[in-house]
Design goal:
single chain; 2 helices
Length: 111
């Protein structure tokens, strides 16, 4: 397990990329007007349009795991709730809501 990135809602991807790069972040990759990953080398911020936001309008912690299904089972056993798994172009992911009501994205990279 490792912290993957923070997902930040992006309503104007170009303007938000300009802003974050002025803070010293570098664009790691961009997927059209849908998503951009920016990093300082240690932390990645994912700017996501409405279609790419796992929970609309909220900044979310995203955690990369080796085995999504096993991690979801452990999370639910510990009192979390989970959405169904979604398969995207780069990962399998689900949103879990911890017992305190906070949403976290768990994802497993696709090979």
């Amino acid at each position: 397990m490792r912290i993957g990135h923070l997902i930040v809602p992006a309503s104007d991807l170009d303007a938000q990329i300009d802003f974050y790069t002025t803070l010293g972040l570098a664009v790691r990759f961009r997927d059209g007007d849908r998503y951009a990953a920016l990093t300082d080398g240690a932390v990645t911020i994912g700017l996501a349009d409405a279609a790419q936001q796992p929970v609309a309008g909220r900044v979310l912690l995203s955690v990369e795991v080796d085995d999504l299904d096993a991690c979801l089972a452990r999370s639910v056993a510990a009192g979390a709730t989970a959405t169904p798994v979604v398969v995207g172009p780069h990962e399998r992911r689900a949103v879990v809501v911890d017992p305190g009501g906070n949403s976290v994205v768990l994802y497993e990279r696709l090979a």
